[in-house]
Design brief:
By secondary structure, the chain is an alpha/beta fold. It has helices spanning 16-28, 47-57, 75-88, 103-108, 116-131, 162-168, 184-200, 222-234, 239-246, 254-265, 281-293; strands spanning 2-6, 33-36, 62-69, 95-98, 155-157, 174-176, 208-215, 271-276. Strands 1-2-3-4-5-6-7-8 form an eight-stranded parallel beta barrel, surrounded by five helices. Helix 2 links the parallel strand 2 and strand 3 (62-69). Helix 6 (162-168) crosses helix 7, helix 7 packs parallel to helix 10 and helix 8 runs antiparallel to helix 9 (239-246). The longest helix is centred in the middle third of the chain and has 17 residues, at 184-200. The radius of gyration is 18 Å and the shape is globular. The N and C termini lie close together (10 Å).
């Protein structure tokens, strides 16, 4: 199983130095992919801008926007952004797309929240046509640039439920789930749903299996920092939900992270994404030590 890592874009003190240091350490380390998520109504920086810098600063690791909340965007602009990232990275791009779960982000950019699942399917088909060189309408020039990867980069679906996975089985290369706390049963159940969806869609290939979890390896109060991070991330769901989810966090030591990775690998996962709770360099340095010894 490959192990990927997310850049700490959720941290308020994220700055230029963070991008430079993390890109260097991740690219020099044993990680397979560097990822970044997307938020609008938050103090976070722009996902594609961060990953454009990462694509230019790295040479080896793959780059993965995880995830593009595609129905909140114009699909033609996203197709152009993704193709540009593919060029900047030299074809090292994989893209995760989904509908997200934060209505505030949709409202902030004047995008309708209703009908988002159907729009996602239509937008994926539209982007693939553009990447194949088809112009957006008759008499128009094609939308460039041409992706390095023929037909565009691999698309993973950030779907979590059986209905969304059934839709994704028509266009995705695989699934990107999230276990929150490294629980292998969550990953196992998600992969089983994906397998069933792929089979029902009549596909002969198996879905690529990816998942992830939050962690902290800070040398100072890692557990406290992990709990605070998760509570802050989940508070949009209400304080009770945020406290409940934060209370399940356990991946705040080297042994706990190592065990979570081993248990998730046993489910048949092909790539696991570590999502750090702080921007401390110890998070990536200590994670690299764990991954290198596996």
């Amino acid at each position: 199983m490959d192990v990927a890592i997310c850049i700490p874009y959720m941290e308020r003190d994220y700055d230029r130095r963070t991008t430079l240091d993390w890109c260097r350490l991740v690219d020099d380390g044993p990680f397979s992919t560097l990822s970044c998520g997307e938020r609008v109504t938050s103090y976070t920086q722009h996902m594609t801008v961060i990953l454009s810098a990462a694509a230019a600063l790295t040479k080896r690791v793959r780059i993965n926007p995880s995830l593009y909340v595609l129905p909140a965007h114009d699909a033609t602009w996203v197709a152009k952004e993704i193709a540009t990232l593919d060029v900047l990275s030299g074809g090292r791009l994989t893209v995760t797309v989904g509908v997200g779960g934060r209505e505030h982000d949709y409202r902030a950019v004047n995008a309708p929240f209703a009908g988002r699942h159907q729009r996602l399917d239509e937008q994926v088909a539209h982007m693939k046509r553009l990447w194949a060189g088809e112009p957006p309408f008759e008499g128009c020039d094609p939308v460039g640039p041409t992706p390095v990867q023929a037909g565009g980069p691999p698309l993973l679906s950030g779907s979590m439920g059986p209905k969304a996975m059934a839709r994704a089985a028509k266009w995705a290369a695989g699934v990107y789930g999230f276990t929150l706390n490294g629980n292998p049963e969550t990953a196992k159940n998600g992969f089983a749903m994906a397998d069933a969806a792929w089979k029902a869609a009549g596909r002969s290939d198996a879905p690529f299996r990816a998942t992830g979890f939050w962690y902290s390896l800070s040398p100072d109060d890692a557990q406290g920092k992990l709990v605070r991070y998760v509570h802050d991330y989940m508070k949009i769901q209400g304080d009770a939900v945020a406290k409940a989810v934060a209370g399940t966090m356990r991946t705040s030591s080297a042994d706990a992270v190592r065990k979570a990775l081993d248990d998730i690998e046993a489910t048949g996962c092909q790539e696991c994404f570590l999502v750090p709770a702080t921007l401390e360099l110890a998070e990536v340095e200590r994670a690299a030590e764990i991954v290198a010894k596996r």
